[in-house]
Specification:
Low-confidence stretches: none
CATH superfamily of one domain: MetI-like
CATH class of one domain: Mainly Alpha
Largest sheet: none
Distance between the termini: 16 Å
Strand content: under 5%
Order of helices and strands: HHHHHHHHHHHHH
Number of helices: 13
Radius of gyration: 24 Å
Shape: globular
Mean pLDDT: 79
Length: 318
């Protein structure tokens, strides 16, 4: 267990280094730099001072080494697009906003997706099954921002039931201002419902015909006991496999939904940073997203033996 933990930790560091390196050089490959438009009307001496301040007067190799050294210390530098802002201040201000939105979307979507997946599997071949699968295909085919615009137009614009834009702040940031969160949460949860309902149905249908399920039925166990103790538990492995990416993405922001509802989260900042080639912010958010993802993967590996005791932490079988 100790050796496995050390190996995975080193793999996490290597993954972060590769992602950071790729992000840096991809942004460097884009023509121009983030200072071009900001300094084009400034005097030459001020222009030179700004290029020196952000390090764009140095070769790419030197800037890469400086960027990597800053990442090792947790210092991504000052934003170019948002003057005076650093990654630490942006995370402190914006991460809670994106986290609440994403967690609400995931909880609602995952809960409904699992319930609908169980129902579709248990009612296989009926109109209930066909209705759930058809709805899931519809949900997964339509982009979330289309749902966001539709919900905003009908329930906020025409009916006036909810605010058009905005997000809770201050003391209401985590547990208040629910009227602002309803439409963004609904707009983002449809994808989760579609994906997890189809995934769980497929997994359950594969488990239903296994020998141990047939044995449980022959012993006269109740249908509820068979579903929850034998079928559902073993069907959850694909769900757990997909959870890391879901958690990482939900915490770090719903880019398009945040833009539609003018929610001041990480997603909204990330879009502006990418379009402005704001290397410190893009690097910071990318590293955070990657870090959350690899940590979730590690936790997933730990959860596998709990869901299925036949799986060892090293990947072997009992």
């Amino acid at each position: 267990m100790v050796g496995y933990t050390i190996r995975r930790f080193l793999e996490m560091l290597l993954t972060l280094l590769i992602i950071a390196t790729a992000t840096f050089f991809l942004l460097e490959a884009v023509p121009g730099d983030p200072l071009t438009q900001k300094v084009q009307k400034l005097p030459p001496n001020i222009k030179a001072a700004m290029y020196e301040k952000y390090g764009y007067d140095k070769p790419v190799g030197d800037r890469y080494i400086k960027a990597m050294a800053g990442i090792m210390k947790g210092d991504f530098g000052q934003s170019i697009v948002y003057p005076g802002q650093t990654m630490k201040t942006i995370i402190k201000q914006k991460l809670p906003v994106s986290a609440r939105l994403g967690i609400q979307q995931m909880v609602v979507g995952l809960s409904l997706g699992i319930l609908l997946g169980i129902l579709a599997a248990m009612k296989r071949g009926t109109w209930i099954d066909y209705s759930i699968i058809t709805t899931a295909i519809l949900f997964i085919s339509i982009p979330s921002f289309v749902f966001a615009l539709g919900l905003q137009k009908v329930f906020a614009g025409e009916l006036g039931w909810f605010p058009v834009i905005g997000w809770p702040k201050g003391k209401d940031l985590w547990f208040g201002g629910w009227k602002y969160t309803v439409l963004p949460t609904l707009a983002g949860c449809f994808g989760y419902i579609a994906g997890y309902s189809r995934l769980l149905k497929t997994s359950m249908l594969d488990i239903i015909n296994q020998d141990y399920v047939l044995t449980a039925k022959s012993k006269g166990l109740s249908g509820k006991s068979i579903i929850f103790k034998h079928i559902l538990r073993n069907s959850m492995i694909p769900i757990i496999t997909n959870l890391p990416l879901t958690i990482a993405m939900c915490i770090t922001g719903s880019f398009f939904i945040e833009r539609v509802f003018s929610i001041p989260g990480l997603g909204l900042y990330y879009i502006g940073a990418v379009s402005g080639q704001d290397l410190p912010i893009v690097m910071g958010e990318t590293i955070i997203l990657t870090g959350i993802y690899v940590i979730c993967l590690f936790v997933t590996d730990i959860l596998y033996p709990i869901v299925d005791p036949r799986i060892r932490i090293t990947g072997g079988k009992r």
